[in-house]
Specification:
The chain is of the alpha+beta class and about 100 residues long. It has one domain: SET domain (Beta-clip-like), CATH 2.170.270.10. The protein has three helices and five strands; from the N terminus they run H-E-E-E-H-H-E-E. The strands form two sheets. It has a three-stranded antiparallel β-sheet with strand order 3-5-4, with helices on one face. A two-stranded antiparallel sheet has the order 1-2.
Length: about 100
């Protein structure tokens, strides 16, 4: 039951792009935009979603290797259920996810 409630809460936050504890900063000196936290987060807590195009491992690796250096920072690789995927958030999307660095 707890997991189901978490999934419902995450879905609601994703739809509204209302992430408690995050603030987008628009003028970081020498960096542009970014995100700062306004409260502590627990180790297993969802911080926000990361909107982007979901790619296969082959397509993601190819796109990453052929992208300009600035675009590389918006792509990441992850594993799920034994498969490797990439998310490409180079294009602007709603939410703070693509502005989170670490």
């Amino acid at each position: 039951m707890f997991l189901f409630l978490q999934i419902e809460q995450i879905a609601a936050h994703t739809a509204a792009q209302s992430w408690d504890g995050l603030e987008v900063v628009y003028d970081l000196p020498g960096r542009g935009r970014g995100v700062k936290v306004t409260r502590p987060f627990h180790k297993t807590e969802v911080v926000c979603d990361y909107n982007g195009e979901l790619l296969s491992h082959k397509e993601g690796k190819s796109r990453y290797m052929n992208s300009q250096e600035a675009a590389m920072g918006y792509m990441f690789e992850f594993r799920h259920a034994g498969q490797t995927y990439w998310v490409d958030a180079t294009e602007e999307a709603p939410g703070p996810g693509r502005l989170v660095n670490h």
